[in-house]
Amino acid sequence: MVCTKVLLAEPRGFCAGVEKAIKALGWMVKVFEPPVYCFHEIVHNKVVVERFAAKGVIFVDSVDEVPPGAVVMLSAHGSSPEVVEASSQANRISVNAVCPLVTKVHHEVKVRSKKGYEIIYVGHIGHDEAIGTVAEAPEHVHLVETEEQLEQLPDFSTDQEVALLAQTTLSMDEWADIRDRALEHYPNLWMPNRSDLCFATTNRQGALKQIAHLADSIVVIGSANSSNTVALEKVARAAGCKSVFRINSVAELPPNLDGVVGVTAGASAPDELVEQVLDKLAPTDGIEVISHVDEDEYFPPPPELRELMKAIEDLTMIAFALPRSGESVLEDDRSISASLVLSHLN
Ligand code: SF4
Question: Of all protein residues, whose CA lies closest to atom 7 belonging to ligand 1?
Answer without folding.
Answer: 17
